[in-house]
Write a structure and sequence with these properties.
The structure is a homodimer of 213-residue chains. Chain A has ten helices and six strands. Chain A has helices at residues 12-23, 37-46, 66-76, 91-99, 112-123, 131-148, 154-164, 169-176, 180-193, 199-208; strands spanning 3-8, 28-34, 54-58, 81-86, 104-107, 128-129. Chain A binds a DNA duplex (30 and 30 nucleotides) through residues 153-156, 168-170, 178-182, 184-188, 191, 198-199.
DNA sequence: TATCAATTACGTATTAATACTTAATTTAAA
DNA sequence: TTTAAATTAAGTATTAATACGTAATTGATA
């Protein structure tokens, strides 16, 4: 049985090229082509006769872009697969698409063979991302985690160390020649920053980090 | 030059035996023999002419015993050596003597050769204890340390674990279906028992013991 | 069955910590 | 050189923890 495809791209040249590639394959039936996402949405909404297998879409399109379209499709149906093709590799876009369950992502400069392989893979139920895209996605995740990673300032480390060494706020203030209020601020900020409940949590963190033994 | 010895023992038989052994050795001069420690103390106090090298004394004697005598001698002089001979091997007595810097300890059933070796060793400036005595002493130390080793009860472990998990006293009380007062008691006892200053110390202990991670 | 360790509990007072807000000053970075 | 981050500080209110003392039960064990 033939697979029903929809293609959305506002660049006629790319659209034609893609169509020519797909025409060489006998088992793909192009149901509909669109210049932007809105047309696809309308088509999917109206069409209740034919089963839609895959929507291939560009990212940058007027009115409704590929990101929005992917999100919309995935909300509207859990059988329609999506393959996004794009000129650029913005980590944010890739991240958004993946978070919204896109089935594949390709660069527009991909070879004919890769296009066919991607479509085939996706229609078989698997995801398709080139190694490069996977790397970009993961790299982005790593960096985001790094950002999330709690970093204590020098002073904070100094204070939490003394806290874990069983000194009271007043004692620490005296040691560092600071106001008791200041140490209280640090204490409070550390509890918030490290997402713990009290002194016990601070102590555990300090031990984990090797600030005390 | 001959070494000057004093012997204190209220058992005539043992005293005679010891004297006969020492007479075979030409370089020992028996300055004085006594039936109990008091006599030795008096002799040492009055005597200012002769240098006293070694006092051999029994443990159990009337009036002033060997333990007291050793303590007294070591306080009075840092040149007089002491060798204690005893019938029994009480760890407490051995411990007391060693803590008070006794120079040697022998069982009364030791062989002639060991007596001579002990005296010789001590006069040369070294300590003399038989392997058996050393073992008794060390075993006693180990056991004492074991006693000192802090043991937490089941409940205490339970409570300190929850404390280190950042729960408050009230929360722990609710969890264990106990009064808040009870948990406060545990908290207080744990701080005293573990010799720490506060929650941080408790947490560190709990981590060290693996009660929390 | 007497005794000791363990568990449980209460009371009062004091001190320390936490919650919440705000903000001046200094230093580092864009 | 403006912005952002770090350091410093204060005030008020509430809650939690610590200090110190005391003691009734329960359970094990000698």
């Amino acid at each position: 049985m033939k697979h029903n495809l929809i293609i959305a791209d506002d660049h006629k040249m790319f659209l034609d090229g893609l169509l020519s590639i797909l025409k060489t394959e006998s088992n793909y039936n192009i149901l509909f082509t669109a210049k932007h996402g809105g047309h696809v949405q309308k088509y999917i909404t109206i069409n209740t006769e034919e089963k839609i297998d895959l929507v291939i879409t560009d990212v940058t399109m007027p009115e409704v872009d590929g990101i929005t379209l992917n999100k919309w499709i995935k909300k509207a149906s859990n059988s329609i697969k999506t393959l996004v093709v794009s000129m650029h590799n913005s980590p944010e876009i890739i991240d958004d698409l993946i978070e919204n369950n896109v089935d594949g992502y390709l660069q527009k400069n991909a070879q004919k063979e890769e296009f066919l392989k991607a479509i085939e893979t996706i229609l078989s139920g698997e995801k398709y991302f080139s190694k490069e895209i996977k790397d970009i996605y993961l790299q982005n995740k790593f960096e985001k985690n790094k950002e999330k990673e709690i970093k204590l300032t020098k002073r904070e480390v100094e204070v939490i160390s003394l806290i874990a060494e069983e000194f009271t706020t007043q004692e620490i203030a005296d040691k560092l020649f600071l106001s008791k209020h200041t140490i209280e601020s640090y204490r409070k900020n550390l509890i918030t920053k490290l997402n713990v409940r009290n002194l016990a949590g601070l102590t555990k963190y300090a031990i984990k980090k090797g600030y005390v033994s």
